[in-house]
Amino acid sequence: xxxxxxxxxxxxxxxxxxxxxxxxxxxxxxxxxxxxxxxxxxxxxxxxxxxxxxxxxxxxxxxxxxxxxxxxxxxxxxxxxxxxxxxxxxxxxxxxxxxxxxxxxxxxxxxxxxxxxxxxxxxxxxxxxxxxxxxxxxxxxxxxxxxxxxxxxxxxxxxxxxxxxxxxxxxxxxxxxxxxxxxxxxxxxxxxxxxxxxxxxxxxxxxxxxxxxxxxxxxxxxxxxxxxxxxxxxxxxxxxxxxxxxxxxxxxxxxxxxxxxxxxxxxxxxxxxxxxxxxxxxxxxxxxxxxxxxxxxxxxxxxxxxxxxxxx
Amino acid sequence: xxxxxxxxxxxxxxxxxxxxxxxxxxxxxxxxxxxxxxxxxxxxxxxxxxxxxxxxxxxxxxxxxxxxxxxxxxxxxxxxxxxxxxxxxxxxxxxxxxxxxxxxxxxxxxxxxxxxxxxxxxxxxxxxxxxxxxxxxxxxxxxxxxxxxxxxxxxxxxxxxxxxxxxxxxxxxxxxxxxxxxxxxxxxxxxxxxxxxxxxxxxxxxxxxxxxxxxxxxxxxxxxxxxxxxxxxxxxxxxxxxxxxxxxxxxxxxxxxxxxxxxxxxxxxxxxxxxxxxxxxxxxxxxxxxxxxxxxxxxxxxxxxxxxxxxxxxxxxxxxxxxxxxxxxxxxxxxxxxxxxxxxxxxxxxxxxxxxxxx
Lengths: 312, 359
Known about the structure:
The structure holds 2 protein chains of 2 kinds.
Chain A: H1 2-6, E1 11-23, E2 26-38, E3 43-47, H2 54-61, E4 69-74, E5 77-78, H3 85-94, E6 95-98, H4 112-122, H5 129-142, H6 159-171, E7 177-181, H7 189-206, E8 209-214, H8 217-223, E9 226-231, E10 234-240, H9 241-246, H10 251-259, H11 265-268, E11 289-294, E12 297-301, H12 303-311
Parallel strand pairs in A: 3-8, 3-9, 6-7, 7-8
Antiparallel strand pairs in A: 1-2, 1-4, 4-5, 9-10, 10-12, 11-12
Helix pairs in contact in A: 4-5, 4-6, 5-6, 6-7
Chain B: E1 8-21, E2 24-37, E3 41-45, H1 52-60, E4 67-79, E5 85-89, H2 95-102, E6 107-110, H3 114-117, H4 124-136, H5 140-153, H6 159-162, H7 172-184, E7 190-194, H8 202-219, E8 222-227, H9 230-236, E9 239-244, E10 247-253, H10 254-259, H11 264-272, E11 321-322, E12 328-329, H12 345-358
Parallel strand pairs in B: 3-8, 3-9, 6-7, 7-8
Antiparallel strand pairs in B: 1-2, 1-4, 4-5, 9-10, 10-12, 11-12
Helix pairs in contact in B: 4-5, 4-7, 5-7, 7-8
C-alpha cells in the first residue's frame, strides 16, 4: 500500500461532472464534481445506493458517455475531451469493462471463442488463426474454464461461468484498468465468492487495476485497497479500506455500514439499521468541501458538520 | 413460546416433485419434510437450484405445468371467518379451490423482483383492493379505506396520494412495500417471502426486513423466508432448514444452525459468508457445483463436494440423524460408527467470536 502511493496514478479524475439534459427546465446531475485517483495494480471500490451515480462514473470513464465537465487522465493521456485516433485506440485496448448481467452482455449468437477474441479481431492483434485460438485457450484456462468451452454458446453456461467469460473477454486485451460494474450482484452468494477470488488471483498475476463498482459493502471490503463512498453524485467519503470500515465519519457511510446484515443471530435480532436522510439532517453537499482527516481519509463536509460528526 | 401453545400451521411430509423437460425428467424435490408453527419464522436456505423456490411454489399452488407431484402431503390448517378450523392437503387441492380459498387469502407471497410482480398498467391502489374485493366481496369504499391504511402500515408516506400512482412512479423499495401491502390485504395466515430483498439496495433491504419483522409482531402471522443470504436469516428466522439438491440436509433452531452446525454443507455455507470482522485474504468457497438432478442421485448428493465424505456416502443416502429435539442433520458423520470429524477450525473460531459478541 505504502509504495503504491508514491507511484504515479494510473487514472486521475478531477471534478468530473456528468449531467443529463432531460428538457429545458430539468437536468439530472448524475455525477456532480467527483475527484479520485487509481494507482496501478490496486483496486478502488466505489460504493453507494442505486441512483448515486456510481455506474455513470464507470461509463463516463470509458467514454460511453461524454463527460459534461472535468478532466480524466489515464496513464498520462487526457481522455476527457476530444481524443485523437491514437489516444482513442489506446483507451479502447487498455481500459476494459465487465458488466453486471453476464447474460445480457454476451452475444447469444456467437461462440465463446469469438466473443473473447472480438477485441483482438477489431484491433488486428490476434495474429494467425492458430495464435488466436491459443490466446483464447490460455484465457479460458486463466479464468477456470475448460478449452472445449470455446465452441459453446453463452446459453450453455451457468451464471458464474458466463461471468468468467465476461472476465476473459476483458482480460484478453491485457488492460491496465478494468471497470467492474456490479459484476457480482447478479450471481449467487457462493458463486460471488468464486468470482471475487478469481478476480483477486488475476490481479496478482497480471497486475491490472480494478475500479470495482458495487453496493455490497462486504464484498467491496474483500477486494478493495481504497474505497470511495458516493451519494447523490457526490463523493462523500474516501479513504483506505481500514479507514472507511474502522472509522467512518460521514453519516451516510455509517448508515451503509449499519445496513449490512451481520450473520450472527445473537446480535442481529435486536439490531436496528441506522437510517440517513440528507434532506432531513440539513446536509447540503454543495456547501461542503473535502476535509482531510488523516492518512488518505477525506470527508465531504462543512466546518460545523465535521465538528458534529467527529465530536459524537 | 412454550411447547404447549405452539400450533401447527403447515406440515409437509415426503414431498417429491419431478419436472419433465426436453432433456428428461428432473427430480427437483426429493422428499422434503417441513413444519411451521403459528407466529414463527422459518428460513429455507440453499444455493440456486436446490429446490427452495419450488417448495414455496408448491405451497402456493403455482407450480409450472410440466411438474408432477410424485408423492407427499402438505397439510395446512386455517380458521374460517366463522371460526371453524379447517385442514386441507395442498398437494391434492385442485387449481380452482386453490385460487378461491388459499391464494392471497390464506397464503400470500412476496416475490423477488417488485417490478415484475406488480401490474404496470394498474394503479397500485387498485392492485391492493383487488384481492379484498375478489375474496371477501368488500364494498369498494371500504376496500379503498383499508388499502390506504395498509399503505400507511407498510410505511409509505402520503398513502392517499400514492393510491393513484403506477408502479413505475415508485422506487424499488417503495414497490416492494406495495407488494407487501398487497400480500397483507386479505389477512393471510402464512406469508411466503421468496428472496424479498435480493433485488434491493442494502440500506433498503434492512428497512424492508425490519418492516416484515414489525408486521409479524403486530399480526402474529407465520412466515417462510426463502433466501441464500445468511445475514438475512440471522436477522429474521426462528428456525432454519438448509436445503441441498432437493432435500433438507439440516434443520434446527437458529442458534443450533449458527452455533452448532453438524452437516459439512452447513459448515461450508457458514464459512463462505463474507464477514466484516475477519481480514482473510481469500473468501472460502465450497468446491465444485451442485449436482444435476437430471441424473438420479446415488448416495449422498453432497458427497462429491465434501472433503469429509465417507465411503458409505457413495452408496447409501444418509437418514436424518437426531442431534436434539429440534435439531436434525442428514450426514453419515453423525452415525455412531463414523469417525469423529470436527468442524473446520476457522469456523470454530468464528462461532466462538460470534457467541462472545452476543453477550
